[in-house]
Write a structure and sequence with these properties.
Blueprint: E1 5-6, E2 14-15, H1 38-78, H2 83-116, H3 125-129, E3 133-136, H4 144-161, H5 178-183, E4 185-188
Antiparallel strand pairs: 1-2, 3-4
Helix pairs in contact: 1-2, 2-4
């Protein structure tokens, strides 16, 4: 037998220097090749989506400011004439409309996430523009409820641990963020 051929126990001779079949990899590590530039594209998708949220917030804030002005002019016509009472009424009306605009902006954002990230393309419009989608590691599709949970965990972790937690993809496997790791998701290219 030549020195290029080696006999192993219970196996046929194997030629050295040839590619041998490797054992099956862990599902988490099999995602690797589709992750090129995922960090940069994920940041771009994040910025695009937040620009959309900003537009919605500005539109709602403007509409509710106009509503508050209308309410204030109605109160001025039929309300009291004393300045302290009108000042308190103005603070109440403007405070309520700002609160309502904020709540509706958050509801619109969660609705957007549920429809887009929990939809058939598994990605928000920002993700779709940069050719990304979110996948669960167990192979199940992202449901609207799961998509909203993903967003809530993201917001909660950023509120508690500061946005510095977003540096986690620099050290975690598969370039996952902490909320991706907690929910067993990974950002990939669409199939």
């Amino acid at each position: 037998m030549s020195d290029a051929m080696v006999k192993s126990k219970n196996k046929a001779p194997v030629r050295l220097g040839t590619i041998q079949e490797t054992p099956a990899k862990d599902e988490r590590s099999s995602i690797g090749p589709s992750l090129s530039w995922v960090r940069v594209r994920r940041v771009a998708a994040f910025l695009i989506d937040y620009l959309l949220y900003l537009v919605v917030a500005l539109v709602l804030s403007s509409l509710f400011a106009i509503l508050a002005e209308g309410m204030m002019s109605t109160l001025a016509l039929y309300g009291s004439d004393s300045p302290p009472a009108s000042s308190r009424a103005a603070d109440t009306v403007y405070g309520f409309t700002r609160y309502l605009a904020g709540v509706l902006t958050l509801a619109a954002a969660f609705g957007y996430i549920a429809i887009t990230l929990g939809g058939p393309r598994q990605g928000t419009w920002g993700m779709q523009l940069v050719n990304l989608c979110l996948r669960r590691l167990d192979g199940q599709p992202i449901t609207p409820r799961y998509a909203v949970a993903h967003a809530i965990v993201f917001l909660a972790l950023n509120a508690v641990l500061t946005p510095l937690i977003l540096l986690a993809p620099l050290v975690l496997a598969n370039k996952q963020t902490v909320h991706d790791r907690l929910l067993d998701t990974v950002m990939t290219n669409p199939d």
